[in-house]
Amino acid sequence: MTRLDAGPRHRDVLGSDVIVRRGVLNLMTSGAGIAHSEYSVGDDAVPLDALQLWVALPESRRDGAQAFERHEDLPVVDLGGGARATVVVGAFGGASSPATMYTPIAGVEVNIPAEASITLPLEPAWEYALVDAEGAPGAAPTRFGHVVGHGDERAPAPPLPAVRLTRRRRRP
């Protein structure tokens, strides 16, 4: 059983103090600048299941105020065949995230059962990237358009840094 007060913790100069949890969006907008910390709470090891993205703000918002939002109820799109998509930021499949975004981007977690065959409702004018968050890399072949002059091989992902993560000793 996972304790609700254990796990990575986010704190910032705006007074935000939250535990990072799977399925919950924490969105921090730096604006003219923000200070924050993220560290593990408690002495026991806890599983970490999170994704952190950094998105450049447009010039019109770059020097604005700092902000922090937390969204625990994100819209879900039924893709058929047992597959579903959680709209984290932006819009996808007719659903829109409640998150404030200043850059036209969509962030979606897609869960597809094994052996399911689905069609994703993608916008033709957008570029897309897929990241396999579970399973062996390359377990599900994904095909993108041919890049002229690149050849037939897939561009390899950069290697993960050779570092060992250790728990910080902090007061709660």
CATH topology of the largest domain: Jelly Rolls
Query: What general form does the structure show?
Result: globular
Rounded mean pLDDT score? 80
Query: Which residues sit in consecutive blocks of at least 5 with pLDDT less than 50?
Result: 137-141
Share of β-strand residues: 25-35%
Total individual domains: 2
First-residue to last-residue Cα separation: 20 Å
Percent of residues in helices? under 10%
Q: Which architecture name of the largest domain does CATH use?
A: Sandwich
Query: For this structure, what is the CATH class of the largest domain?
Result: Mainly Beta
Q: Would you identify the CATH H-level superfamily of the largest domain?
A: Jelly Rolls
The number of distinct β-strands equals 10
Note down, in words, how this protein is organized:
The protein is mostly beta strands and 172 residues long. The chain folds into two domains: 1-72, Sandwich (Jelly Rolls); 73-123, no CATH class. The protein has one helix and ten strands, in the order E-E-E-E-H-E-E-E-E-E-E. The strands form four sheets. It has a three-stranded antiparallel β-sheet, with no helix packed on it. A three-stranded antiparallel β-sheet has the order 6-7-10, with no helix packed on it. A hairpin with a 2-residue loop joins strand 6 and strand 7 (83-89). Residues 137-141 have low confidence and may be disordered.
